[in-house]
Amino acid sequence: MAAAQAEHTQQKLSKKAFFHGLLVVGVFYGLLAGWLMIGGKATMEKQQQKLASQTIIIHWPGDVAKTIRQHDLENTPHAPEDIDYGPLDVMESGLAAAPIDGLYEKTPDGHLPVVRQKDGLTPFAAYRRPFDLHSTDNPIIAIAIAGLGLSDVATESAVRTMPQEISFIISPYAPSIDFWVRESRARGHEVWLSFPMESDRYPVDDPGPHTMLVGAPERENQYKMEWLLSRTDGYIGFVTDNNPAFLEASNDMRPIIGNIYHRGLGFVDGSSHPTLIPQTMAAGQNAPYASIDLWIDKDDASQRAIDAALKTLEETARKKGFAAGVIHPLPVSYQQVLAWTKTLKSKGIVLVPLSATTGY
After folding, report:
1. What's the whole-model pTM score?
2. From CA 326, how far away is CA 142, in angstroms rounded?
3. What is the spatial distance between Cα 338 and Cα 6, in angstroms, rounded to a whole number?
4. Which of 4, 59, 166, 171 has its Cβ near the most Cβ atoms within 10 Å?
5. What is the largest CA-CA distance in the chain?
6. What span, in angstroms and rounded, lies between the C-alpha atoms of 68 and 100?
7. What CATH code would you report for 2-47+98-358?
């Protein structure tokens, strides 16, 4: 039974990549909620002193990069069977320290991610949190936190309290984006950037000055794209919101998504009903692609609703072998998800980084 389930899971993940309840004790919640109400410069200065000291670099042997891409090499049809990407600096958290030579080009705005020419190493492969899909026969679930970096206090809380397997989606508009990406990765969390796109409620819902707009000149959207790409080092791709109308405008979105894949980054479609084009483009460019199954707290951030959404996510994972959900940086969401993660082992479910749901 387990073998059949494993085979089913891998088939589904490949298809997707290529074609695509106990409450936390009252004392903890009170402390977390109180903590999140305290903010500002003083909090930032304190956590800089404490968190920065956690970044420890370890020089590992030259085959560590090959280990990072172990699953990629085993499951990519045209990938070489033995690649030595050379020595990487690996942090105590197990993630490669950024930036890595050859994975960026310098521009006036900052570093733009690129595929390393000498060996084909990609930013996605180098900077992700490693997970071997062959290591378990059980259903897998990825949880990501969106909107981080805009509130120092909420971001610090996520960095300090969340399990390493939970991925962080940091806003490209975050004032201290380099700091938060560095500290998030030092604690073991893989980092994605949120992707501002025109939604079906634009301009009522305005994602900011660097939003991809339907009908805008291609050079204008590409200029915005370069700004987004250059915001920081160490992220592995982009995640959209749940109603990106821009993705439905194929002529506008194709060059933008193609640019992401060309630079060796992953793309996660947060749409309620994902479109086919990003999936087929990913298959054509051998690029990592995934979609979000559930925005857990978007419509109702009550304890009861979040618990119900997490149960739905479990059911999805059992049906197709994997699932991905997103929460926002809210005290109640942190509380419920932390309590839920402690129940997964008894349920036979494995918590994984968001990158694992791409099938890579």
Report:
1. 0.79
2. 8
3. 27
4. 166
5. 56
6. 14
7. 3.20.20.370
Token pair, residue 106, equals: 């310098």
Residue 32: both structure tokens together: 């977390």
CB 247 within 8 A of CB 191: no
For residue 337, report the phi and psi dihedrals to the nearest 5 degrees: -70, -40
d(CA 358, CA 169): 16
Per-residue pLDDT of the chain (360 residues; tens, 9 = 90+): 444 454 545 554 544 444 443 333 344 444 444 444 444 444 444 444 444 433 333 333 333 333 333 333 333 333 333 445 556 789 999 999 999 999 999 999 899 999 999 999 999 999 999 999 999 999 999 999 999 999 999 999 999 999 999 999 999 999 999 999 999 999 999 999 999 999 988 998 999 999 999 999 999 999 999 999 999 999 999 999 999 999 999 999 999 999 999 999 999 999 989 999 999 999 999 999 999 999 999 999 999 999 999 999 999 999 999 999 999 999 999 999 999 999 999 999 999 999 999 998
Backbone conformation region of residue 190, classed left if phi is above 0, alpha if psi is from -120 to 50, else beta: beta
Per-residue H/E/C for the chain: CHHHHHHHHHHHHHHHHHCCCCCCCHHHHHHHHHHHCCCCHHHHHHHHHHHHHHCCEEECCCCHHHHHCHHHHHHCCCCCCCCCCCCCEEECCCCECCCCCCCEEEECCEEEECCCCCCCCCHHHHHCCCCCHHHCCCCEEEEEEEEECCCHHHHHHHHHHCCCCCEEEECCCCCCHHHHHHHHHHCCCCEEEECCECCCCCCCCCCCCCCECCCCCHHHHHHHHHHHHCCCCCCCEEECCCCCHHHHCHHHHHHHHHHHHHCCCEEEECCCCCCHHHHHHHHHHCCCEEECCEECCCCCCCHHHHHHHHHHHHHHHHHHCEEEEEECCCHHHHHHHHHHHCCHHHHCCEEECHHHHHCC
Report which of 271, 334, 270 is spatially closest to residue 306, judged by C-alpha positions.
334
The amino acid at residue 191 is V
Token pair, residue 62, equals 């030259």
